[in-house]
Amino acid sequence: MAAAAGESVVSPAIPPDFEWIRRGRRVALVRRTVAGPVGDLLARTPHGPPPGGERLAGGRGAAYRVRLPGSDTVVFRVCRRGGLLAALLRDNYLRLWPRLPRPFAEIVVTETARARGVPGPEPLGARIDRGWAGWYRGVVVTRHLPAAESLWERLHREADAGGRREIAHAAGRAIGMLWRAGIYHPDLNLWNCVVSDEGGGLEAFIVDFDRASIVEGGAREALRERMFRRLERSARKLDPSGKIVTGRDLQALRDASGMAP
């Protein structure tokens, strides 16, 4: 991702509370506090759907809800490409040195975003299965967000004007926190902004930080607008007529985020 004028893309270090696990051609990065159950999940699960996993809707990656031994529930996501390369390469990626493989970079950016106050899922681990000549396939594991629905699903079923306004404001605040934290999310859409009222009050979270980057510098306006335009395009792709996600909804999102042009 090219940085705008006056900005630089930061290559952050691996967070200190994560550890590497290497087994043959598999390499995993796992949070130490869950290294046992999550490390075991990553070690025993072949590339593809995890045994007993429940498929979740939305997104280009194949995501599954998995209950670990004990009480923890996680989301196990198989990394897949989008766009024009999806049909050709699907879930294969080429390692471009010195960059981290994308699943590990996602863990690092997600952890950094959360440390800067962005509401998002706790990253627990990631794995790559190394192939030949630098190619690999990957998975990412995050803690499951209880009672969470995508912004698209929630707006689809909410008819009350006040309820829709509350949903848009919660999502907008989360998006505003994202860019104020210096995180550029190149694929912000109605599936990876989710809302939950598990705690009694409505709260929104940003998920799926694949290809997201940490950007420093004083002139982030171009990236801020690019990010929100991507969200608007996803709304019109899902709902070309604007009957489910209206112009009023999108304006409420902008107002709450502080990302007004």
Task: Looking at this protein, list some descriptive labels.
8-stranded antiparallel sheet, 2 domains, single chain, 3-stranded antiparallel sheet, 261 residues, 26% strand, Phosphorylase Kinase, domain 1, 32% helix, alpha+beta
Report on the structure:
This protein has 261 residues and is α+β, with helices and mostly antiparallel strands. The chain folds into 2 domains: 17-143, Phosphorylase Kinase, domain 1; 148-257, Transferase(Phosphotransferase), domain 1, CATH 1.10.510.10. The protein is 32% helix and 26% strand. The chain has helices at 35-44, 86-89, 102-115, 151-157, 161-180, 221-238, 247-257, and strands at 7-10, 18-23, 26-31, 54-55, 62-67, 73-78, 93-94, 123-130, 135-143, 148-150, 183-184, 193-196, 203-206, 213-217. The strands form 3 sheets. Strands 2, 3, 4, 5, 6, 7, 8 and 9 form an 8-stranded antiparallel sheet that branches. It has a 3-stranded antiparallel sheet with strand order 1-14-11, with helices on both faces. A 3-stranded antiparallel sheet has the order 10-12-13. A hairpin with a 5-residue loop joins strand 5 and strand 6. Helix 5 crosses helix 7. The model is unreliable at 1-8 (pLDDT under 50).
